[in-house]
Amino acid sequence: MSKPTPPLPRWADIVLLPLINLLAALVLCGLVIFAIGENPFAALKVMINGAFVYQGALGYTLFYTTSFIFTGLAVAIAFHARLFNIGAEGQASLGGLGATLVAFAMAPIPGIIALPLAIGSAALFGAAWGIVPGYLQAKRGSHIVITTIMFNFIAAALLVWLLAGMMLEPGQFSPQSSLLPEQTWLPKIHEMLGWIGLKTTATPLNASFLIALCACLFFWVLVWRSRLGYEIRTVGQNQEAAHYSGINVARVIIITMAISGAFAGLMAINQIQGVSHKLILGFTAGYGFTGIAVALMGRNHPVGIFLAALLFGALVQGGTELDFEFTVITREMVLLIQGMIILFSGALAYMFNPPLARLLARIFGTKEDANA
Amino acid sequence: MLDFLYQTLLAFDATLRIATPLMLCAMAGIFSERSGIVDISLEGKLLSGAFVAATVAALTGSAWLGLGCAILAGITMSLIHGFACITHKGDQVVSGVAINILASGLTIVLGIALFKRGGQTPSLPKEDRFTPIEWWGVEMMDSVPVLGSIYRQLISGHNMLVYVALLCVPLTAFILYKTRFGLRLRAVGEVPQAVDSAGISVTWLRYRALILGGALCGIAGAYLSIAQGGNFVKEMSAGKGYIALAAVIFGNWKPFTAFFACLMFGFLDAVTARLEGYELFLIGEIPSQLMQAIPYILTVLLLAGFIGKPRPPAVIGQPYHK
Amino acid sequence: MTYALELKDVSKSFGLVHANKDIDLAVSPGSIHGIIGENGAGKSTLMNIIYGMHRADKGTISFNGQQVDVRSSADAIEHGIGMVHQHFMLVPTFSVLENVMLGSEGGLTLSEGRATALERLTHLSTTYNLEVDPHALVSDLNVGQRQRVEIIKALKGGAKVLILDEPTGVLTPQEADQLFEILKVLRDDGVSVLLITHKLTEIMDITDTVSIMRQGEMVGHRKTSETSPQDLAELMVGREVLLEVTRTPATPAEVRFSAKNLGYTNSQGVVELEDINFEVRAGEILGVAGVSGNGQTQLMETLAGMLPLTTGVINILGTEVTSADATSPRIIRDLGVGHIPEDRHTHGLILDFEARENMILGFHDSELAGSGKLFDYSAIQQNCEDKMAHFDVRPSNPRLSAKNFSGGNQQKIVIAREFSANPGVLLVGQPTRGVDVGAIEFIHKQLLELRDAGCAILLVSVELDEVMSLADRIMVLCDGQNVGIIDAEKADRSTLGLMMAGQKAEAAT
Question: Strand, coil or helix: what is A73?
């Protein structure tokens, strides 16, 4: 048996290791870019410009960030209970469905009631789509990973059926609904800034960004400041100890999945209430899976999630720019980076742990030496 | 009536074609999961295999080379999965999801870089693909009523890879139940300590299971892009890897039952297209999208214990610590 | 003489835990050698080293006089070692024959080696009276039969040393007798049998020689004919300096909780507790003594609501719980019962949580976490600081993760938490396991103070000295049954030792 690895100091565990994982992912992607004959550094420069520098770029970036915050929070809350929610994609679809249905139903009702109700329905429908796999796991032992994957497909089928059928806007060929009533639209940020006299470039960034920030705050309060959050964390750490202490483990699992689904459902309002104002097939665009990467990178903490969501928002927006500038590289490059990040931050998260720990121990000395 | 039977025959014919990639991926899933490794990444391996097969066939003009390279591609993806899960004891689900996303990204990025057609590979001429093989005596049988039609439509006239896939099912069963490797593989997914204490390497056994699985997924991918179709299109696996996983679960991790599940799902798919607009007795028109969701709904019902009891390998998902 | 197996100075550590320290062992050919010690003494680790599942940090192993390097179980098997593990390593979905063939299939396809394997199996079966149907599915076999399959597996390679790790833990007395007959045949055939157990009677019944382990060390070797259960028990459970706590006689008041005909059968159908009857009054400590593995854990967990009762009735502070009622730790806790679990790492603490978060485990709904809807961390911090001060937890840092505390201080956190709730009834399991000497005295004082304040305490401990110094009355469990309850004044080491070995005592409650 080899010598036991010295423990990694807390700051290295939270900041350094994720950065190293990110770097490894980027380096590998850079190699791929190099292999197809382009300059990875040039690509990087284009992405940074596209994401932050050009006029309006930040707005676009933050628009994508908003979606990733929601799905990242969804996956993260489930992770706190040691549940793997792969179903954010389906839960977001259902959220969109809910918001759309309620919005249409609210046609005569003023926005001050209709809008919050539509937003609430997004969360509610998403929660419903999450609670069923949660219940099946808690009470019947059905593996939540498989059920949430299946539910993604069922949700997709459901939406195709509805959008190509009864919800289809008359005269349209591509599956989408009619335009939502205007009072259920969310104002764009540049519009809101206009109200107080600031002129900025028009971007899709809308008020759901603010809701996302509130969601981050809510997440933090829930997980670390509430009794339920304590129970969720305890179940995630050690189900036996949770049982010993009187916590109802099944109940906690079910509630956690409902909350997770609700966060995912809210992702829909960014796209639907905020930008397209109609339910379009495929609006989730794989962002449910990006949420996994965001949660893993952000280590299930709202601050980390925000930063990771920002990173991915930048990647998506920068990726669009890549599409313009390079004929050979397209936005799908982002999928590659996303996959690499999930691989390194998730499955290989501790690959760099032993060598890093040993290196730091040599530089700084170990905790045991410090205490001696 | 005769027409109805003929339509049914055509449906069975289509079933075999649709079920071929499912069968291969399901067998792959069985090898991997029976050894104790969760395999969410059948989809990614399928996609990678399809891409590599089409690319190599387009560049070299040889379908066989394409097939061979597809097998290698599947194995490579499996090795990544193994490296993360077995060697580094990482989370198997996360690794699987990562591989799927990686495959999506890599296939498009490399596809565009090589061929600049928005992710597609060039269409292959017939000589560079696997084409249907007519069996001996087809014309002769034509004159025989009923049996002749069955012979021509259902049995003969399929792609070579279809026959390969059909062969893989009994082959998988043979390997699993009648060989030393299969005995050890089944043991390692139930009680890895028993295998370890008998002096056998758990790690190497699991790697071999993954490699076998990767090869099978590679063949399935090649079928999609250079046999059934004539090129690779982005995301062409279209969820088939997940249906194969559903078939594995539905088939209780056994080769023949999973095979029947694949046939059933394939049949549903074949019949869906034919039933479009067709009014069924009492139920009325069944939307094709909902029919497409049936395999997934059935799997959930199975997992919830409403149809039978799923019996997964005992230690699936848990890395082996001494 | 050439020993079949000889160990010299074998040591093994897992991180900071010294599982084996400088072990010497010598086993003659054609003998049954017992290794006795409590759970956690290091016996299993030692056997795993011999069998190649772990590698020793230092020391030598020799078989038949030849020093060997055992790097894997394949090596061990090659050198003629067979092992029957405590937790069977059988694949339930396979047949007996398939399980035996695993690892020695005799060919790439199973059909090649099947006939030979069957022949060998039948030969072993008849030679050593290991009756078993080769084609039966293991999941259909009972425990005794499964064990026979394990023995056949261990012997199939022509093993000359057979290790059995706690083989009778799951057997009925009759099955155990059958096993011993088999072992005698093996011994007479020249096989060396290494019998690992914590049961004194087994050692006396069947072994020729015995070695005693305690806390990772070999503390003695004896010829079985020249020793006695008392001698062995003392060597096994003895401990260094246990500071005597002064205990004033108890003044017990009303009955706080009791059990009638309490029984527990586990999911495999093994009866682990049978017909347990006792009463505990306010202001007294009922100690439960016994060698570990005799039902103590099941007793604690059924009383605490973590396991359901199979038979019988528990009465806690006036509320009855029967086998028909649903029980849960929440229900029991709400009745006013505190629980110091036997295994603080699995049950009592969340190792990655901070001390202050552990201090409210089970009490997070109460005011200790704040009076409002949200957690009030200043209250949580204060709560932890107060309790740490009162119970002398070191370092007194509420923000430190539980895993960074020493065993004794971890235990003090659990005790601080449960004691401070002023429970009417307290269940305590192994309170000083893995705890340093200084903390032990403190914990004992706290227990007595709680008793004097009127709590009814059930104390389960495998440390005889602890039970003797703290309990007012002592109940002894053996094989899941209550051997007797005697007053502390009448209890001494030899009486208790005999009871622990299953011999009923004269005096009852």
Answer: helix
Same domain membership, residue C299 and residue C185 = no
Q: Is C174 a domain residue?
A: yes
Q: What are phi and psi of C285, to 5 degrees?
A: -115, 120
Please check whether residues C113 and C184 belong to one and the same domain.
yes
What percentage of chain A carries pLDDT values higher than 90?
A: 40
Interchain proximity B91–A346, CB inside 8 Å: yes
Tally of domains in chain C: 2
Residue C15 has a CB neighbour count (10 Å cut-off) of 7
End-to-end alpha-carbon separation of chain B, Å?
64
Which residue of B lies nearest to C93 if distances are taken between CA atoms?
Answer: B190
Where exactly are the structural domains of chain A? 63-301
φ and ψ at C286, to 5 degrees? Answer: -100, 115
Ramachandran angles phi, psi of C174, nearest 5°:
-65, -45
Cα B97 from Cα A149, distance rounded (Å): 11
Question: C237, C272, C300: which is the final residue of a domain?
Answer: C237
Q: How far is B232 from B235, CA to CA, in rounded Å? A: 9
Q: Which residues of C touch B199 (CB under 8 A)?
A: 72-77, 103
Closest residue on chain B to A345 (Cα): B94
CA C225, C229, C232 angle in degrees (round to 5)? 90
- Between positions 14 and 73 of B, the ones with CB within 8 A of A are 38, 40
Task: Output the domain CATH number for residue C57.
Answer: 3.40.50.300
Question: Could you tell me whether strands C81-84 and C209-214 are parallel, antiparallel, or unpaired per DSSP bridges?
Answer: unpaired
> Rounded distance, CA C150 to CA C47, Å?
16
- What ipTM was reported for this prediction? 0.84
pTM confidence score: 0.83
C263 and C154 belong to one structural domain? no
CB contact under 8 A, A136 and B304: yes
B98 contact residues in A (CB cutoff 8 A)? 339-340, 342-343, 346-347
Answer yes or no: are the C-beta atoms of B315 and B191 closer than 8 Å. yes
Answer yes or no: are the C-beta atoms of B161 and B130 closer than 8 Å.
yes
Say if residue C260 is in the same domain as residue C223.
Answer: no
Residue C191 lies in a domain: yes
Q: What is the mean pLDDT of residues B202-231?
A: 92
> CA-nearest residue of chain A to B234?
A332
Domain final residue pick, C237, C265, C290: C237
**According to the model, what pLDDT value does residue A2 have?**
40
Q: Please give the torsion angle defined by the CA atoms of residues C223, C229, C235 and C239, in that order, rounded to the nearest 10 degrees.
A: 180
Taking one residue from B and the other from C, the number of pairs with CB-CB distance under 8 angstroms is 72
Q: For residues B184 and A184, what is the distance between their CA atoms, to the nearest angstrom?
A: 61
C304 in contact with chain A, both atoms CB, cutoff 8 A: yes
Domain carrying residue C188:
5-237
Concatenating the DSSP letter of every residue in C97-162 gives HHHHHTT---SSBHHHHHHHHHHHHHHHHHHTT----TTSBGGGS-HHHHHHHHHHHHHTTT-SEE
Selecting from A224, A238, A246 the residue whose C-beta is nearest the C-beta of C330 gives A246
Say whether both C53 and C198 belong to one domain: yes
Q: Is B47 helix (H, G, I), strand (E, B) or coil?
A: helix
Domain membership flag for residue C509: no
**Do C261 and C188 reside in the same domain of the chain?**
no
- Domain co-membership, C311 together with C270: yes
- Predicted pLDDT at C498: 74
pLDDT the model gives residue A270: 92
Domains in chain B with CATH codes? 19-124+138-303 (1.10.3470)
Instruction: Using alpha carbons, select from B50, B239, B44, B218 the residue that is nearest to residue A343.
Output: B44
* d(C-alpha B162, C-alpha B18), whole Å: 9
Q: List the chains bordering chain A where 3 or more Cβ pairs fall under 8 Å.
A: B, C
Residues of chain C with pLDDT under 70: 16, 39-40, 169-174, 237-246, 292, 436-438, 501-509
Which H helix or E strand runs over C120? helix C110-127
Whether C119 maps to a domain, the answer reads: yes
Residue A229 has pLDDT above 90, yes or no: yes
What 3-state class would DSSP assign to B247?
helix
